[in-house]
Amino acid sequence: MSAVFDKKIHQTLADANLQLAIYTATGRLKDKRTESVAEALMPEYQELRTQANALKKHAIENLDYYLEEFERNVEAHGGKVIYCKDGTEVSDFVLGLAKERGVSLLVKSKSMTSEEVDLNERLEHHGLEAVETDLGEYILQLGHERPYHIVAPALHKTRFDVAAIFEKELHVAYETVPEKLSQIARGVLRQKFLDAGIGITGGNFLVADSGAVVLVENEGNARLTTTAPRIHIAIAGIEKVIPRAQDLAVFLKLLARSATGQALSVYTSFLSGPRRAGEIDGPDEFYVVLLDNGRTKLLPSRAKRQSLYCIRCAACLNTCPVYRKIGGHSFPWVYSGPIGAIITPQFMGVSYEPSLPFASSLCGACAEVCPVKIDIPQVLLDLRSDVKKAETREKKNRLEKLSFRMFAWMMTHPRVYAWAGWMARHGPILNVGPVRAWTSQRDLPPRPRQSFRDMWSRR
Amino acid sequence: MSREHILHRVRTAIGRSAGQPPGVAPPVRIRVPTDDSALSVAARVTNMLARVEALAGKTYHAASPEDARAFVAAAVAGKTALASNAPFLADCGIANLPGVRTGIVDREELRECCSTVEIGITSADYALADTGTLVMLSSPQEARLISLLPPAHIAVVPSERILSGLDELFAILPNPAELTSSMVLITGPSRTADIEQILVRGVHGPGEITVVVVERG
Q1: Which domains does chain A have, with CATH numbers?
Q2: Which of A75, A199, A210, B121 would staple B177 via disulfide (CB 3.0–4.6 Å)?
Q3: Can you give the pTM of this predicted structure?
Q4: Tens of pLDDT, residues B82-134
Q5: What stretch of H or E contains B192?
Q6: With b meaning 16 or more CB within 10 Å and e meaning fewer, what string describes A60-77?
Q7: A40-54 burial, b if ≥16 CB within 10 A, otherwise e?
Q8: Residue range B15-72, pLDDT digits in tens
Q9: Which residue in A has a C-alpha nearest to residue B174's C-alpha?
């Protein structure tokens, strides 16, 4: 385990307030999800999951076809599609367009994809102002932090934290009532929306047969981002494409329920191209950035490409006993929780944080709640095997190999096995080295006085 | 830029070649309810109003267009309001209520007006009974900002426009992009729970939503 990962985990575990905040917030989201998909309320839930999985599988297996179909349809409606390999290409495109159009202020609605490529930092580096408009993301931007959770980004912040951030960064009076804090943000951001030249969003779904970007949100900031400025740029991973608009009847029912327990999020926007002739408002220019950034690396393996089915509902985070203890910032990259544990090593390489696939008890709770049925524990196992193979290549795990060889030798020599068993029951406990590392986190069970083989021989 | 590079990588990884037709897609799953309770307009109206109220929206079931007009007149009395260009609002006599502006076709004028009025009044192309959702298609009749910028939104919808739910919507509109650049589903007032999971309404969009269902008789 890297020292940073280890340190962050211990900091989180030692912070009682943070522990309570994570536990309460994820618990609430988890319970709401459970209620909303209950058999009595939603008898078709399991059938929808199966259908969603089949649709995602089909879309990924024919990804090039649907990307090209999506592109054709976006262009037919007067929009433009830009393929980008990585974050540099995304920021080059946005910077170039902003320069050409003379734009210096951009508004953004919540997008994990843009977090992934550090878009804000890149734009700010070139003197542009990019303002997050989702309340949680705005708080984090002012506080210079990364999202703690895929759906509830400021889950770890108390109202007092937010009051302090607003007081310091916005020079307003210290105010701790959430309604008033929201009003302060609304006021500041309202002006940003009206002044901004470009609005940047993510994309929950890209609909191939319509050339549409679908955005799902509760606040209205994504609607404002896509309506007030003259230019809309949606940035989405290539895996977000689905075949048909009609498939939304499946995905929309699953997404909001899995994320927050709502039957539908407050606003679902289905956007295809710039405003048409006669339409009174809407953007004049419409761009969709299709981002690779490591996604194509996941495609060759049939088992692992299912990681790309994810619709970012965060149900796996809320239900994960590990996430609920170690929180979002312990994870090494922007994606946290079980889904973060499987996509981070695949996007960034297994050596990025090799212990990540091992930071799981493989309890399977994540797979049970996943609306698109990603078998997360299976992918974790595959990744563990990849990490071990890489370590073998780098000759890192010699001690581990040696101990497994000794274990194999013991298991195939009954006398040695019997002796080792006796030692384990009656010998001294050598609480040093690897044993100590183990016992420092766990209690040893009481030692039995006799072995099963003793009992068996005496009956 | 990287178009060919990325498409090539995708094709190599999944074993496809350029121009190859796709495999057979899973059949569309659309289930429009066929039982009487879901089909009758009365049942849809009841469900719609109950769902909107459950989301903390206000509702009114108007027996006639005149009734709707009277309700909206009372709601906007003493306030400033902007009505969309939807013919149904004009038919009900809502667009020409005193204090209500309407007929804006210029974007700048619309932005200006929407950021100052207290109430935005629209119709809706459809409503979804099982979730209490308004379906708004952007058009010369319906601008996007009227249901978004003012702090309160009143939607006046003929009862026969209420569908059972999402499935019926996508059965009627299999490809909304053919009609509009923007279809928005609105389910309740704008909300957030980003601070300590405490529900706050009206963070960016309208904090108040009123759905008036109108019987045309």
Answers
A1: 58-293 (3.40.50.10420), 313-393 (no CATH), 408-458 (no CATH)
A2: A210
A3: 0.93
A4: 999 999 999 999 999 999 999 999 999 999 999 999 999 999 999 999 999 99
A5: strand B191-192
A6: bbbbbbbbbbbbebbeeb
A7: eebeebeebbebbbb
A8: 999 999 999 999 999 999 887 666 799 999 999 999 999 999 999 999 999 999 999 9
A9: A246
What is the gyration radius of the CA atoms in chain A, in angstroms?
A: 25
DSSP, collapsed to helix, strand or coil, labels residue A136 as: helix
Residues 6 or more apart whose Cβ sits within 8 Å of residue B36: B43
The token pair at A224 is 């404002």
C-alpha neighbours within 13 Å on the C-beta side of residue A337 = 27
For residues A140 and B23, what is the distance between their CA atoms, to the nearest angstrom? 44
Contact A357, A334 (CB under 8 A): no
Query: ipTM value of the model?
Result: 0.97
Q: How far is B26 from B170, CA to CA, in rounded Å?
A: 16
Torsion over CA of B167, B168, B170 and B172, rounded to 10 degrees? 160
- Distance CA(B189)–CA(B184), nearest Å, equals 14
Residues in chain B within 8 Å Cβ distance of A42: none
Sorted by where each starts, the structural domains of chain B and their CATH numbers stand as 33-214 (3.40.50.10420)
Q: For residue A124, how far is the Cα from the chain centroid? A: 24
- CB contact under 8 Å between B205 and A219, yes or no, is yes
Task: Tell me, rounded to whole angstroms, the distance of Cα A413 from its chain centroid.
Answer: 47
Q: Are strands B119-122 and B81-83 parallel, antiparallel or unpaired?
A: parallel
Residues of chain A in contact with residue B198, where contact means CB-CB under 8 angstroms, are 159, 178
* Chain length of chain A: 459
Do A267 and A216 touch, CB atoms closer than 8 A?
A: yes
How far apart are the C-alpha atoms of A330 and A323, rounded to whole Å? 9
Half-sphere exposure for A341 (CA within 13 Å, toward CB): 33
- Give the Cα separation of A60 and A71 in Å (integer): 16
Pairwise CA distance, residues B84 & B208, whole Å:
17
What's the rounded Cα separation, in Å, for the pair B129 and B44?
5
Taking an 8 Å cut-off on Cβ atoms, the answer to whether B187 and A299 are in contact is no
How far away is chain A from the Cα of B217, in angstroms, using its nearest Cα? 31
